[in-house]
Amino acid sequence: MIKVIVNGAKGKMGMETVKAVQKESDLALVGQTDMGDDLVQAIKDKSAEVVVDFTNPQSVMSNIRAILNAGAHGVIGTTGITENDLHEIRELCEKNRVNCLIAPNFAIGAVLMMQFAQAAVKHMPSAEIIEFHHETKVDKPSGTALRTARLMGGKVPIHSVRLPGLVAHQEVVFGGLGQTLTIRHDSLSRESFMPGVILAVRKIKGLKGLIHGLEAIL
Q1: How do residues 134-165 score in pLDDT, each as one tens digit?
Q2: Which of 31, 126, 156, 194 could form a disulfide with 5 if both were Cys (CB 3.0 to 4.6 A apart)?
């Protein structure tokens, strides 16, 4: 049994993760933490091996420091992590001999969309990204859009849409002589992220150091 804490358990993604972990016979949900809780103490009290974090960009780095310094592995779905943050996380993993997977998007279809876009840009370099999310999403552009742009070479315009009724959607539109190509992924519910989250929880102990992107474990 893998002992798991869900941090940000009162949020929409956190609540979905709690339900997903509870369904798996090889995972044990030993804690649900949120704002105001002592995450380090919870890890120690419950001997948690893995912490899944779905919180917010303002607190994600302090949460990651707490998780890794407490000796647990991290599965991080919170966005807003910078290149400098990744350098610090890599050092924390080495120092504490733990692993941390950072994934801008846990939907397997979204990972495939990014890989297809990375392949397509070599042949159709004129492209733009349009990402659509629910109106309460804090960061803009999304972590998925930023990750896609980086995979495509970095200089891809990104357009962000925030509206009620949306969950998480992204399309990459390529233009060429007399033709266009659109690669699109739609998450119609937060359940779409759970197979990727569970996969990461199961595999994180066997990885090494910092892993950036779900594609590394597919």
Answers
A1: 999 988 999 999 999 999 999 999 999 999 99
A2: 31
- Tell me: do 180 and 93 sit in the same domain: no
Whether 9 has a binding-site annotation, put simply, is yes
> Domain of 20?
2-102+192-217
pLDDT < 70 positions in the chain: none
Q: Is 36 annotated as a binding residue?
A: no
- 137 in active site: yes
107: tokens are 């939907």
Question: Which strands make up the sheet holding 158-162, listed edge to edge?
Answer: 158-162, 127-133, 168-176, 179-187
Whether cis (ω within 30° of 0) applies to the bond prior to 141 is yes
pTM above 0.70, yes or no: yes
Q: Would you say 106 is a known binding-site residue?
A: yes
What is the predicted pLDDT for the residue at 79?
87
Same domain, 166 and 126: yes
